[in-house]
Amino acid sequence: MTVLARSSSVALGRLPRPGTVLAGGFVALVVLAAVAPGLLTSDTPTQIDLTNALAPPSWEHPFGTDEAGRDLLTRVIHGTGLSLGIGLGATGVSMALAIVLGAAAALAGGVVDTLITRLLEVTFAFPSLLAALLIVAVFGPSVTTSIVAVGVGSMPGYARMVRGQVLAVKESGYIEAAHALGHRPWRVFRQHLLPNAMRPLVAVVTLGVGQSIVWASSLAFLGLGVPPPSPEWGALLDAGRGYITTSWWLAIMPGLVIVLFAVAVTSLGRTLQQRLEGAAR
Amino acid sequence: MTRPRPFRRAGVAGLGLALAGSVLAACAGGPSAGSGTRIEGGTLTYAHVQEPPCIFGGWIQQAYISRQVLDNLVTLDTDGSIKPWLATSWEVSPDGLTYTFTLKEGVKFTDGTPLDAEAVAFNFDQWMTTQLNGTAKVSLDPYYRAAEVIDPTHVAIRLNAPYPQFLTLITQGYFGIQSPTALRTRSQAENCEKPIGSGAFVVEEWRKGQEVVFKKNPNYTSWPATAKHEGPAYIDELRWKFVPDPLSRYASLTTGQSDVVYEIPTVHWKDAQEKFETTIRYITPGKPISFYINTAAGVFTDKLVRQAFAHGADRKGAVEAGFHGVIPYEGNPAMSRSTPDYNADLADAYPFDQAKANALLDQAGWTGPRTPEGIRTKDGRPLTVRIIYGAGSFITAEGATVLQALQEQWKQVGFGVELIPLTRAELNSGRFSDPTTYDAWPSYWTSPSPAILWIVWRPTTPEKPNGNNRSFYNNPELARIIDEANTSTDPERASQLYRQAQQIISDNAAGIGLYTQNTLVAAANRVKDFWLEHSQGEPVFSDVYLVQ
Amino acid sequence: MTAGTTGIAAPAPATEIPAPLVRVEGLRIRFGAREVVRGVSFTVEPGRCLAIVGESGSGKSVTARTLVGLTGHGAEVTAERIEFAGHDLQRLGERAWRSIRGREIGYVLQDALVSLDQLRRVGDEVAEPLRVHKRGTRAERAAAAVELLAAVGVPEPQVRARQRPYELSGGLRQRALIASAIALDPPLLIADEPTTALDVSVQAQVLDLLAEAKERGRALIMISHDLSVVARMADHVAVMRQGEIVEQGPAEQVLHRPQHPYTRALLDAVPSEHTRGQRLVRPAAGQPVVRRERAPIDRSRPVLDARGLTKVYTGPDEVVRTVVDDVSFQLYPGETLGIVGESGSGKTTTARMALALLEPTAGEVLLHGEPWTALTRAQRRSRRRRIGVVYQDPLSSFDPRWSVGRLLVDALSTGPRPPASAEEARARTVRLLDQVGLSPERFDAAPLRLSGGERQRVAIARALAPEPEVIVCDEPVSALDVSIQAQVLDLLTDLQDELGVSYLFISHDLGVIHHMSDRILVMKDGRVVEQGDADEVFERPQHPYTQQLLTALPRLAAA
Amino acid sequence: MSTAAPAPAARLRRIAGKLLSAVLVLLVAASITFFVQLLLPGDRATVILNIRNGRDQQWPAEEIAAINHQFGFDRPLIVQYLDYLAGLLRGDLGTSYTEFRPVTAVIGAQLLPTVVLTVGALVVAWLIAVTVTLLTVRRGRILGGIGAAFEAFTASLPHYWVGMLLLVAFAVQIPIFPVIGGDTPAGTVLPVLTLAVPLSGFLGQVLREEFHKVLDQPFITTARTRGMSDAAVRLRHALRHAVLPGITLSGWALGALVSGSVIAESIYGRPGIGQVLVTAVNNRDVPTVAGIVLVVAAVYIVANVLVDLAYTLVDPRLRIS
């Protein structure tokens, strides 16, 4: 048995090691682009050169130029901060909401629990895109709106997860042990319950960031995203899609960046998840 | 999801020139027309952009589609002259206050009821008294008084004042005549979905979100004088599909899934011209896409600043590059080149001249220390300009690119320009009717007649506010000139006054020109005799025939 | 052909010794660098039982798996010879292996709850070998399944066959598992810990079942860590340790005249009535048994006084279950009270009520004559330190993020003399570690990295830290190997002699209970069926259930 | 271990409770939409006038008043709300502001295509996920890695991007499928794929994870000791256990699919709830939007009931409790 387990953990066929390394590298690059775009490119993202519009990828313009002759790579790099910000922000928003609701439900139990679970059911049944539509309709498209819209949209899933986590930890032996030692409930919550319940969520959050970015870009596609000339990735993709048959790079390049980033983050998240699970068992 | 399309306004045909130009463009590429063996009947698929809530109504989308089922009293020819349609002839009383129309004999609505004077009168009352078609109403307000049945084939329209533009205006699709019986007896929903007219087609089925299926009206007798043939439509069926995505729309034409496509993206225009015999570029008359400049609040209350703004950026260059040379620049902020009585002197008003712009701003006192972003200031107040625009509706993606290009150049002379795209919901919500909410607003209003000046520039007065004057530019003199032009029975005088009005608007930079609104249409090579009606470019399918 | 008939058909005379069915010589298994089996040799003859005994990690299971070609991923198997019925198994391809598995060699794993597919019907599971080896039609196989279930003594087999494993009791489940292993009546049967996790009474029945197969002339290889179980079955015993067979020979000889010190240590380590009052771990070979001498127990004032404890649950389906029914007992200073009973008898629930972690439905517990369970949570908190607990699975009772040191310091802080400074805390923790026989460097270790025995020691240290009068031990050694179990039990007794702490000691293992307890409480279905002095209960059981338990209990002496 | 069957009374009560809560969920969802929409900037009468006349202007008070009266906007909010609720109970979702038709009619025509799209996507996603997992999980590092990488990649694909690429590839460049297929079978293929591909990634990841756990279970070894082939073990034993979490996920995925269908529908000019929804929101057509939310929520609830059923079918252990 032990033997099988061990050998299998070797053969675990998720992203192979080199993949994880690559992913890490890519994410690192993206983060760099976010904090210090200047290090990766010298041009400014809004530098218009209409005479040089829609130039295909070349050494000078690795990602080509857009309909206003702006260097696409530069725009992608300068858009990173915004996109990453939205990803993190949205995940933050949803996580914050989720933790409050989920934890409250799990700990309070009884009426509170049923109420919150019902509420979550409603939000689940409520197409997240509609939530986004309404939010944007109320506040108009902007970075903040995108963050809120995406955050609210992905909240219920996390909330359920948090609730489940907290419940699980609540039942665990070490919580009882802590009570048996005569610790105060608040201390038990602070020292054992919260940290242990949140632990596995670390991985989930990393996964969430990737998905949030994808989501935010979907909003952009529906014209509900960050307004131009902002080089937010989704906005770039949206701007480029009209040209896909004539100037493919405008839609393909930003799309690839988004997807690759999501993939990278996801694979990292999964590796992290396994680590944590390993640590827990 | 439907990308909102502009709501086109009433419009009279552009100068012959405009169409001539486009027809040339059309004939430039492809083999000569008329090739291939003709086939009887058949189905034609037309890919349109936006789906209206109702077949008829006050929205250009509705004018387009209702044209297929409804006939008008008169129509407009390419030379701008009025031609018979349901009305075989008409007389204008010497005082210009009464228009008496003689109706074609024996025309019947598709519900079998007669299309007589009573019907026409009933329709006029509908337009002026109900909310169903507000555009028809504003076009005739405040000149319309009453419609009067003389005998079954004669109807008189009485006006409060002479209004020579009247005939031109009623050539638009908004003025299609419907069966009174249907309007009276059927539910609003029924009329909305399947209006009863006397047109070449009848609505067979409306598959919402997908297409409207038209069947030919075999008993069609009331074709307009401008028709390319007499008698019922050649094709049996017209499938009017709604394809919001530009990429799909054009692809549907290139892959042969549709025969005629509306709104070819400018990127594909060249390609279309090479591939297809019939490509029509129709320059919509009326107010071009020009900036309303908020003269009531903000930095633009100062005329010098407005003029500096106009000089500050290379609008012409940006437009030509941004639209790949397909859509022409329009310097005249008040009227597009295809509108009658267009003032051509304004075609290049306020050329690109940053030195002049800077001089004007200095003169206006914007000489304070610049902000870190290089924005001019005055008494510590930065020279920021909020430009709102209907993203994807009034301003296409390409238009947005042009704005972004200009934004860069304006920055060079010290304008801090903020671009605020608005969703259709926000525009409709009427939230931006307040002067404090924006400084400039690029937008257009297609209209077949210089009377558009009255709609857009009539000053707001306490008793009669003008919700359409988005520059909040209240110039009594301008108002007087336009009104005089509208009511002048002397065409020469009217024309000269209209030109003068445009001059005033431009000189005061109450508006700043940008580009003309265009309709770009292409038809597959198997489609013959497809044309755009002239008052506002409604597609006409009643003459179309298909070839092998 | 179905097992039912042939099973009875071919009885093999157990007298003369036939030629070996399985012959293994110099078997070596390595996973990468780790060699887990080092040159193992043995033979099994038809109608005889070879028992491979050893503690976890001794390589016994891997050895067994190798006989069906399922050693595991990346295993490297070499041997001078692995023969089955004269065929060389080493040269078999996957296809050939499949034809052997189930047909020639039946395999029984431990714990049918996880060894049977919970989502499939018992009948399908039992008949699967028939389907795999294309025996009979669907209908015939279904019939065969029922017959097999009947053959292994499953009541109302038709019904059971249509149920799913989780709907069966542990015993029936294990029988079903065996039934599927003997479905094709294979000449060789391998049973890997067939009775672990079963209650003694069930254990006996399952062993009888295997014995019967043996009687029918089937060869049997039994893997077990439990010498007493082995004693009952094996003709031949091989003792494995770290991948080697340290001693093998006739059962009678190995179990009663062990040659190898390890075997001897193992045998001594088994707690039972004989080991009462002595340490289980011998200091060194040949030295005399150390007896524990302890102060007489003063039975005037109980530390813990449970009166008519009752716990009733109402399930979501509104079915009312009385888990503990009117249980009363007294625990006196320095005494060990053993609670014994099979799974579901209410032992643990009783313990949790004693700890006041569970509100009794009726009755109460007094601590030092003062109300305990009757108090409010807040009132209890200050007194909690006086009653500690040691769980079966210590790991789950440790916060996974905390080091051993932090766990203990935390526990100390709840005691009567909370450490004033970090230095003091550390010093006292190290002393605690020393007390439970752990070295100081364990201070910074993560519990996850410790061995089972070490973890349990840490758990005990934590229980001791607040200087309690009572420690509730809930199956504290059930998860441990015999030798480790011996060490832990010794530790507990030593601590009791040293600190005079009282134990409420819960176990399903009669041997352990007898070894540890002064007085015993026998529980069945939530009720106390018998209680009294340990020897009294064990030698002269009054209640039939107790008697049944004791007869079912496999004993080394019995062999 | 064996558990007694629950008392029928209790079961009935539980079912009743579920139904009640479902209805509650619906009402709350509809109410939220109703009120949120009133939060939207601007005034409904103006919007209606603007939409009808294709304008964006200010309207004279008298015209506004007329509309307000016609639609009853001049009544107190609470009255409007109660009126709406009363309608709901009568199964009347109200009348669209812009289409002059009952909302039920507006939605009715569009519901089926969307259901076909989402359900189709779910099914296809499962097919892809199961095949990929079965073929790659535990087949050595290379194959397993490829499988996992494939899942990670597809799971990260934005719907609209997939849609766009599929459209360009298989409708424009290589015209196999129609560009504007509407809801014809041929026209349904690409939209379904658009939604299915990313979802298959998600399902696949869960499936793979579970498969790994299951393949280490003793009962798998038992099956092998019976002489079962690896393929058989995977299909007969492992798969059934592995799909369980995926099934739960499918329930949740439906919400995402509805959102995704908006995108798919807009790219392929396909009729459906999504299109109507976006237009209605843009037009601030309160009854229509609320109606759609109601319907979607209802569908979602029903779907999840089905998912629960499927779950208990696969894992009878859940029937008890």
Automatic annotation (TrEMBL), chain A:
How this chain sits in the membrane, per its record, is: Multi-pass membrane protein
Q: Which family does it belong to?
A: Belongs to the binding-protein-dependent transport system permease family.
Keyword Methyltransferase appears in the UniProt entry = no
Give a GO biological-process term: transmembrane transport
Show the GO cellular component annotation of the record: plasma membrane
- Keyword set, alphabetical order: Cell membrane, Membrane, Transmembrane, Transmembrane helix, Transport
Record Gene3D superfamilies: MetI-like
The transmembrane residues are: 20-40, 82-109, 129-153, 201-226, 246-268
Q: Which organism is it from?
A: Pseudonocardia thermophila
Identify the domain of life: Bacteria
Instruction: List, for all copies, the residue spans of the domain called ABC transmembrane type-1.
Output: 80-269
Q: What is this protein called?
A: Peptide/nickel transport system permease protein
Q: Which Pfam families match?
A: BPD_transp_1 (PF00528)
**PROSITE patterns on file:** ABC_TM1 (PS50928)
Subcellular localization(s) per the UniProt record? Cell membrane
Q: Give the matching PANTHER family.
A: OLIGOPEPTIDE TRANSPORT SYSTEM PERMEASE PROTEIN APPC (PTHR43386), PEPTIDE ABC TRANSPORTER PERMEASE PROTEIN (PTHR43386:SF25)
UniProtKB/TrEMBL annotation, chain B:
Which PROSITE patterns did the record assign?
PROKAR_LIPOPROTEIN, SBP_BACTERIAL_5
- Which GO molecular function, any one, fits this protein according to its record? peptide transmembrane transporter activity
Q: What is the name of this protein?
A: Peptide/nickel transport system substrate-binding protein
The principal localisation class reads membrane
| GO BP: any one term | peptide transport
InterPro entries, per this entry? Peptide/Ni-bd (IPR030678), SBP_5 (IPR039424), SBP_5_CS (IPR023765), SBP_5_dom (IPR000914)
Q: What range does the record give for the signal peptide?
A: 1-25
UniProtKB/TrEMBL annotation, chain C:
User: Record keywords: Nucleotide-binding included?
Assistant: yes
Pfam family example for this protein?
Answer: oligo_HPY
User: Sorted alphabetically, which InterPro entries does this protein's record hold?
Assistant: AAA+_ATPase, ABC_transp_ATP-bind, ABC_transporter-like_ATP-bd, ABC_transporter-like_CS, Oligopep_ABC_C, P-loop_NTPase
The organism's place on the tree of life at top rank: Bacteria
A GO MF annotation of the entry reads: ATP binding
Keyword set, alphabetical order = ATP-binding, Nucleotide-binding, Transport
Q: Which GO terms describe its biological process?
A: peptide transport; transmembrane transport
Q: Specify the ABC transporter domain's residue ranges.
A: 22-267, 304-550
The entry sums up its family as follows: Belongs to the ABC transporter superfamily.
Q: What is this protein called?
A: Peptide/nickel transport system ATP-binding protein
Its source organism is Pseudonocardia thermophila
From TrEMBL, chain D:
Give a GO cellular-component term: plasma membrane
- Keyword Transport annotated: yes
- List the top taxonomic levels of the source: Bacteria, Bacillati, Actinomycetota, Actinomycetes, Pseudonocardiales
Q: Which Gene3D superfamilies match?
A: MetI-like
Could you tell me the keywords of this UniProt record?
Cell membrane, Membrane, Transmembrane, Transmembrane helix, Transport
- Its protein name is Peptide/nickel transport system permease protein
UniProt family annotation: Belongs to the binding-protein-dependent transport system permease family.
Q: Which GO terms describe its molecular function?
A: dipeptide transmembrane transporter activity
The record's subcellular location field reads: Cell membrane
Q: Which InterPro entries match?
A: BPD_transp_1_N (IPR045621), MetI-like (IPR000515), MetI-like_sf (IPR035906)
Per the UniProt record, which residue ranges are transmembrane?
Answer: 19-40, 111-137, 158-180, 186-207, 242-268, 288-314
Family matches, as PROSITE patterns: ABC_TM1
Stated membrane topology is: Multi-pass membrane protein
Q: Which residues form the ABC transmembrane type-1 domain?
A: 111-311
**Entry's CDD domains?**
TM_PBP2 (cd06261)
Keyword Transport among UniProt keywords: yes
| Highest taxon in the source lineage | Bacteria
